[in-house]
Each structure stands twice: as structure tokens, then as C-alpha cells.
Write the C-alpha cells for this entry.
Amino acid sequence: MFGRVEQPLTEDKVREALKAVKFPGFSRDIVSFGIVKSINIAGNNVDVALHIVTRDSAIPQQIERDVRAALTGLSGVGRLNVQMTAQQPPQQGQMPMAGAGAAPGRPHIEGVKHIIAVGSGKGGVGKSTVAVNLACAMSQLKCEVGLMDADIYGPSVPKMMGATQKPTITEEKLDPVENFGLKMMSMALLLDDNAPVIWRGPMIMKAIQQFSLAVNWGALDVLVVDLPPGTGDAQLSLAQTIALDGGVIVTTPQDVALEVARRGIAMFEKVNVKILGIVENMSFYVCPHCGQHDDIFGHGGGKQEAERLEVPFLGEIPLFSEIRICGDKGLPIVVASPQSEPAKAFHRCAEAVLGLLRSA
Ligand SMILES: Nc1ncnc2c1ncn2[C@@H]1O[C@H](COP(=O)(O)OP(=O)(O)OP(=O)(O)O)[C@@H](O)[C@H]1O
Ligand SMILES: [Mg+2]
């Protein structure tokens, strides 16, 4: 008898509809990644403003098409105006320095010259061990270094760095905790021991943003970011939040791990992060007693893979029980025994990375 009463169009309804639009190539939606900047409704007319940081011009076009499709199908929408702005992440060397008055919305961390992320397509290959020891080696090479643990599910940097202090807050920003001359920030420093961490999508973005932008990093030559293993949400959040100068891929020599390294590389490429190079971890076994080498997992796969993919090979780190023991003790091997063979191997990698950052 009665016609259907149309519910008025609301911002919430539009936002809900936009949650159906995925970031191209990822399982997460554009709302949770903060790409939707504003929604304005006047009667039946809808204005949506989107902003994205990417080097790939196809991505904003794709998102705009998907947004139009999602909202055209929403009942009650009359005139639709989608305003898409896209911005290139700043290249290394163009990073605005502290107080330089950067363009608004430009992702940078004031005073931080270079930001690198250490990642892999897989867990347990030694990303955190490499990130921590690379950072310590760079610090010994007279760089001001920060270490950001972006693994919010399984943060391990503070344990490996022997850091237990709770961060203080100055001017509404977290003060990093310092050990061995490095500044660091990790979810593990903010949570009580054993507290379970349950993250929903949008919270990952928030946490990553806070860890990069709401920390008093001060003046740094390099900020090393330890990435979690996973689907790419953290990587995408990072790439949207800050300008990464490059990614370091950690792999082990076996074929199966190399396949995973390829996936890690693809992930960095998808978010337009330059690959600085590949580190082969657990490359060969060094007997702690006699110093003899043994290629347990095969050897040289990382190097071959780097050649095949035409990315730099940054070096090989031996499988050496002291590396794990030092990590468990909270005293990285580079700090504990700087003259040991593994420490020298980390130093060579650190020099290679610094060389690439300086020459880029
Ligand atoms: N070269 C090495 N020699 C001996 N032990 C190592 C070496 N590299 C890493 N390990 C040990 O292997 C384990 C896994 O390393 P790590 O936690 O660094 O890996 P990860 O890739 O960060 O793991 P996750 O994916 O869980 O974050 C640790 O116990 C670490 O001490
Ligand atoms: Mg780790």
C-alpha cells in the first residue's frame, strides 16, 4: 500500500559503501588506509575527496573508477563528484629537513635523512636479527640511528636490544628508548608483558603512523624499520605514512626461502619502495669451536637471486649460534663481539647499505 520510504543519504552510508573498495592488489579497503579525506552530502549530491601517495599513476585511476562504481550503485545518490589527488612519495635526497616547511600532507619524518625497511615474504628468516645488527653496525660507523619495530603482532626488537624502559612523552610525542647509542620504538615497550595484542585493520595504520610520526626521533641519519612477516598491510601503511628510501630483503639460501624473497620483493615493488638489496642470512654454518664453515642450507642462492633480479647483493651472514644467544641476551653480536666473523659480516652489509643511500 505504501511506497518504500527512502532513508536519507548519510555520510556513514557513503563511508560504508566506500569500504567495499579495495586498494588495488591488497585485501584492505581504502577507508581503513585513510585514503578517503572527506565526504560531503548536500541533498542527494555527494562530494568525496581522496588523497593517495604513490608513484604508480594507474592506482589513483583504478581507485577513482572503483569509487564511482561503488557510489553510483548506492541508492539515493544524485550528482557524484569524486576529487582525487595523488602525490609522489619524496625521493631520497628530497627529504625535507627539520623545519624546512614541507608541503602539507607530505609524508616525512622531520630530521630523519633516510628510512629503510627490513623485510621478507616470510617469518623466521632473521629479519629482526638483521635489522637490529645492521642498525648497531651503522651506529658504530658513526651514524645517528633509530630502530622502529613495525612488527606490532610479534615485536622482538626491545628483547634483542635489551630494552625494558617505558617510553616517556614530551609535547604529546613518544620519546624513543635508547640503548647502545640507538633510539628505538616498539609496541613491546608500550604494552604490559604477555598482554595479548589483537589488532583490527584500521588500528594497524594508526599504530604505524604513531610509531613513525608521533615519536621524537630527533636528528637521524638512518631510521631502520623492522617489518613484520605478513600480507603487506603494514608495508602499505608504512608507504602511505612515510617516505621509505628503500627495502632490504632478508632471505635464507634454500630455494623455498628464495621464492619467499621474491614475494617480499614484489610486495615492496607494489608500494613503490625501491629494493636496496638482498641479505642472505644463515648463509653458511660456522662452528663456534673450530671456526670451520659448512653450507648447511646450500650457499649462494641469495647472490644468484640478486643477480637474476638485478638488485644489489648486500652480503651473507653466517648461521652462528652466538648470534641467537646474543639476541636472546639482549646484547646484539655486533655490540657484544665486534671483532667476531658475524659482526664483521653485519658491518659489511651496513657499509653496503650506507653506500647505496649516500650515492642514490
Ligand atoms: N645468522 C643467524 N645465526 C643463528 N641464529 C639466527 C641467525 N639469524 C637469526 N637467528 C635466530 O633465528 C630466530 C629467528 O630470527 P628473527 O626473530 O630475527 O627472525 P624474523 O624473520 O624477524 O622472525 P619473525 O618473522 O617472527 O619476525 C631467532 O632466534 C634468532 O636469534
Ligand atoms: Mg621479526
